[in-house]
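# nightly structure sweep
# worker-07 picked up a monomer target from the shared queue
# config: single-sequence mode, recycle default, output format = structure tokens
# input follows
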Amino acid sequence: STMEETDREAVATAVQRVAGMLQRPDQLDKVEQYRRREARKKASVEARLKAAIQSQLDGVRTGLSQLHNALNDVKDIQQSLIDVNKDWRQSINTIENLKDVKDAVVQHSQLAAAVENLKNIFSVPEIVMETQDLIERGELLQAHRKLMDLECSRDNLMYEQYRMDSKNTHDMNLIHTYFGDMQKLSEELAKQLWMVVQRSLVTVRRDPTLLVSVVRIIEREEKIDRRMLDRKKQTGFIPPGRPKKWKEKMFNILERTVSTRIEGTQADTRESDKMWLVRHLEIIRKYVLDDLLVAKTLLDQRFPPHYDIFNKLLNMYHQALSTRMQELAAEDLEANEIVSLLSWVLNTYKSAEMMGNSELSPEVDVNSLDPLISQNVVDQLLSKYMSTLTSNIIGWLRKALETDKKDWIKETEPEADQDGYYQTTLPAIVFQMFEQNLQVAAQINEDLKAKVLLLCLQQMNSFLTRYKDEAQLYKEEHLKNRQYPQCYVQYMIAVINNCQTFKESIISLKRKYLKMEMEDSWSSSHTNMDTTLDIIAKEGCSSLLDEVFMDLEPHLNELMTKKWLMGSNAVGTICVTVEDYFNDFAKIKKPYKKIMTIEAHRRVVVEYIRAIMLKRISFKNAEERKEGAERMIKEAEQFRFLFKKLAAGSGEDTEGLCDIIEAIAEVIKLTDPSLLYLEVSTLVSKYPDIRDDHIAALLTVRGDASRDMKQTIIETLDQGPSQPNPNYVPIFKEITVPTLTVPKLLK
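# output follows
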């Protein structure tokens, strides 16, 4: 058995230990000592064992007693449950019979509420009157306080009724009708609030507390709205007239007010005032800026931050302005009105005079404002402006030319400028009109200015062609009757001078308004205009010289005749007439006057030589030849003197022209016929455009050369070298020699 085994193990262990202790003989002496020590050890172990067993026994005893108690408890509970079960089964019927008590409780709570509200209910008519009175006196906060009490009573009654019997509409209506006047009060109060809101920008300056009261009332109503909506989620009940949404209404009222404010600034129509639009826009600018400044500095502080009142107003004004500008853009605007509108929309609106005002920043950032009208509308307006302007300019130019033409037939001389040159007002009128339109276009933008400039130049181009035609007609009409118009010469001079003024004005316009990159599109039309102007001036000058030579004709016809040889004063008269005309021609501007002087000089010499070539005289002898030649030399000198005087100061060298007459005179004067060939060849080498027929005519006038001699001289000349003056302008080529022999009996 296990016990025996344990005993054996113990004995074996003990034997081992004793053997270990008694290994040497001298240890035997200590046996007694060893025995006592072991006895002590054993006693100690036994004591510990006894204690352990004892405590375990105690634990077991306690556990047993607790189990015993638990058992008793379980038995008690079981009994109780049996009792409860029995009671519950018995009381089911009793519970069903308690419904009446429950109903009584609900009714009790309603009656308690009704009793509580009774004093309110009975005093409803009285409170309504008091509230009405407060509203009329403008004590809005107190009026609202009473209104809230009334609404609270009605809403609580209705809620109780709804809880008791939600289908009973009759009782609901009864309550509603009883509180009927209260609805009117709410509307009456709202009306007062909206009046204050409409005038908020004025009120905030005059009576800020009134505005604050209004905002507080709206905030209270918003709170009640929220509470009612929450209750509706839970119970399904919401009183009539809720939610009132007074905050939303307030913003709607503000929006309407802003629109009306902007629309109402148009005081005039085009019929009553040509500047109606400029005025309208200026009033809008002033109102909007003033309103926003008030809104920013005063209004903003009177509203709770979450209303964001300034930004809301800013948007409202922007919207209202946008609507108004679109309405204006859709009207049938005139050109200047389109410019006013666009300039306002594109420039003024965002400028420092309005939204860019420093006092509005940083809240207003002009760069983040949307455009007031779309680019599409802007483009439509611009194209309408350009087409209107085009027809206007065409009309203005036509009218200007018509007016100018009326002046041409006046019996009084044209005006002279500060330097004494004749002119008409045409260039000034035309360029003033261009300037005005360019300045107007510049108000909008560079692009439009460039378009208008090109338009002006295109129109100017076709206008100058008409001007040229009119000048031509003027000349033709005059030639039909040279007595009319009385001041033809002076007005033709004015036309010529206008060409110079036009040239200068075009250049100054170009300098002032033309961008470098547009040079190309401009240069061809500029060249065209310059060419046209030169043609007008040149034709004008030539028609004036025609006038002179028509008057000189009878005197030119006298040259190289018997009468002339006998001593007529034809050249004297010619010189006086030319000088007389040139007194008028002094009113021609420099470049053209210089051309006139040269041309007159040239034509006089040509006509003189032509008179020689007409073979109207044939000298009979050396005496006559000498007399005739000396007369020619003297007359050449008269011409030289005249034209030197006329060209004074212009540095014109036309000496050479009169030299031709002198050279011809030398051929005629020659006394030794054997030297004739030499003299003629010198003449030809100087003036190589002399033709054979010219030489033949010259020899005929000389009167002493036979047919053979003429033939020989002409044939020999063909081989001669020529050494003309490099500045010589051929003059003979335009002189024809009559082929028929003219009878010598001419005067």
